[in-house]
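Hi all, a correction to my earlier message: I attached the wrong file for LLM class flavin-dependent oxidoreductase. Here's the right sequence:
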Amino acid sequence: MSTRSIRSSYENPLHLAEEAAALDLLSDGRVALGVSRGSPEPALRGWETFGYTGSGDPRGADLARAKFDLFLRAVRGEALATADPEQYGPGRKLAVEPHSPGLDRRIWWGAGSRETAEQAGRMGVNLMSSTLLTEATGDAFGDLQAEQIRRYRAAWKEAGHEGSPRVSVSRSVFPVVDQRDRMMFGAGGTDGDQIGVIDGYRSTFGRTYAGAPDELVAQLKNDAAVQAADTLMLTIPSQIGVDLNVHILRNFAEHIAPELGWKPNTEGPVQGEPLG
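and the right structure:
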């Protein structure tokens, strides 16, 4: 499966739709595309450096929403461009090419709040929820995120979309199975959620899970959002190198994932099935 995370306020939506469809066709329908407004960055109104203007929000949220809406319409095959009347006759509209049917069902919106999750449900795209929410109500992070998921699914249903959407949550999980793990991650877990300010919002940050596999299984089964989602994405520190990251993922796959309902799928194009 090919995956990519996109900062929507920096992208030309029609060009992105063209590239995404081409990649999906080349990969035989294996693209999963995550899109979001983007996390806080060091550049001030960085999208303007890329040549995009018109945002009245210092975070570029309004620009990102408008661009994503246009991108989604293009991916779904809507004719958006006016054709040359000398070639096609008057009133003809053209869609972005190439078009990859079904790609829109594999697009995920990275929502950082309950409100943006509801918006994703109304748009009819999958939900990708990370390790933080730009909200702090006093509820545990897992409970707050589980409510976000419930609101998303309710908005999806109310909008009249067919089928069942996909929902992923992200967690930092470090199984401790040998001495190297104990040295690297043995004291790396956090006892609870953290509250801080990000992007000007008082926010809730999820805990880091680190410990023996049986302890982690019990903790993840008690995480309301992990149980509400159908997909668990692992957040791993890429700066520590490929070998150690592979080791972390292998430990999770061997010692944690089966206890959460994961079963390897070696016959299909995507390895593994969602956690249930």
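Sorry for the mix-up. The two ends are 20 Å apart (CA to CA).
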